[in-house]
Specification:
The protein folds into two domains: 122 residues, Enolase-like, N-terminal domain (Enolase-like, domain 1), CATH 3.30.390; 221 residues, TIM Barrel (Alpha-Beta Barrel). Helix content is 31%, strand content 21%. It contains twelve helices and 15 strands. The strands form four sheets. It has a seven-stranded parallel sheet with strand order 5-6-7-8-9-10-11, covered by helices on one side. The protein starts with 6 loop residues before the first strand and ends with a strand. The mean pLDDT is 96.
Length: 371
């Protein structure tokens, strides 16, 4: 049965991180996040725009989201008959790029549709066979190796099944060597966030000795060709992240043998419709996938849990407990990880958690209703 979006509410929230998070390009102390609420027939669906505060991961950032949604995306969705949430991607396809803004809106409509049907979001997107998902953690660059080792010990003791550490030139070979000395048996991967060039192939080759699960996006954020050249020189699988924005990109990367693994981030690819297509292409080619994180609030984290129930998400993703990032989350109950490093997949309709409206209001710094 078709439905219409009667109202879209945009909220910008500001939440301080428990601990700063540093990548090869920036250090983050607090998150400014845009949330999207879509309303139809008295029901609300919720989405999260996963862009950062600055255009460093890709071209999007918090301040760019609002005008894009208000002026370009929302008018193509409001009051138009919709047969399915799958239509949202096409309705906003005239917008070049800006997948995170579009994906936050699209995810909200998927959540709304699942609530209308009275089923969990995981099942609605075609997953849901798993009752729990395996979890890893992403650990940023620290001020010292000793601090990093202490953080890893904390996360290993908490049960997380995989450790990812951020690297950059000068914080790579010696650091990982020390991590491997102290933790010889953990599942370990390195994420470079495009900090290297093909000229660094010899340096990256040194990482082969550390039995890493993968090296994530070592080269340019928009490159596939040089990654194919680099992969031929390494025994360690490359994982592509930033450069895989569409199913077509996934097809090209796989055809060129540019990677052995793909990270699927819901926002980066524009929502569930394209994420499922990338998942299916990777699965049909024997390429495992996992769900990456963008320091999401509980809403984005809940969407990632649903995404991770699709069958080819066979590697632990960056979907961790709320308390790793927030003193208090905007959902209740907060996302919790078991001592075995797993998260139970919620069974309630939609993304499966309740909004903590009192706390949401307290952290909201901007709000606008589009109708």
């Amino acid at each position: 049965m078709s439905f219409q979006i009667e109202r879209i509410v945009l909220r910008q929230i500001r939440m301080p991180l428990v601990h700063f998070f540093e990548t090869s390009f920036s250090r983050t102390y607090a998150r400014d996040i845009v949330l999207v609420e879509v309303v139809s027939d008295g029901l609300s669906g919720w989405g999260e725009v996963t862009a950062g505060e600055n255009p460093f991961y890709n071209e999007e950032w918090t301040a760019s989201i609002w005008p894009l949604l208000v002026n370009c995306a929302a008018p193509r969705v409001l009051h138009h008959p919709l047969a399915s949430a799958t239509e949202i991607f096409g309705r906003t396809a005239h917008i070049r790029g800006h997948f995170m803004a579009r994906g936050g809106l699209e995810a909200a409509v998927w959540d709304l549709e699942a609530r209308r049907a009275g089923i969990p979001l995981a099942r609605h997107i075609g997953g849901g066979a798993r009752t729990e998902i395996a979890c890893g953690v992403s650990i940023g660059i620290h001020d010292s190796v000793e601090q990093l080792l202490n953080t890893i010990e904390t996360e290993v003791n908490a049960g997380y099944q995989r450790i990812k550490i951020k690297i950059k030139p000068g914080w790579d070979i010696a650091v990982i060597r020390e991590v491997r000395r102290v933790f010889p048996n953990i599942r370990l991967m390195a994420d470079a966030n495009s900090a290297y060039t093909l000229a660094d192939a010899g340096r990256l080759k040194q990482l082969d000795e550390f039995n890493l699960m993968m090296i994530e996006q070592p080269l340019e954020h928009d490159d596939i060709i040089d990654h194919a050249t680099l992969q031929k020189q390494l025994a360690t699988p490359l994982c592509l992240d930033e450069c895989i924005r569409t199913a077509r990109h996934a097809e090209q990367a796989i055809a060129m043998h540019a990677c052995g693994i793909i990270n699927i981030k819901l926002g980066r690819v524009g929502g569930f419709r394209e994420a499922r297509r990338i998942h299916d292409i990777a699965q049909s080619n024997g390429i495992p996938v996992w769900c990456g994180g963008m320091l999401e609030s509980g809403i984005g984290r809940a969407h990632n849990i649903a995404l991770s129930t699709l069958p080819n998400f066979v590697l632990p993703g960056d979907v961790s407990a709320s308390k790793r990032y927030w003193t208090r989350d905007i959902i209740v109950p907060p996302v919790e990880v078991s001592s075995q490093g797993t998260i139970a997949v919620p069974t309630a309709p939609g993304f499966g958690y309740h909004i903590d409206f009192d706390y949401l209001k307290s952290v909201t710094v901007r709000e606008e209703t589009l109708s």
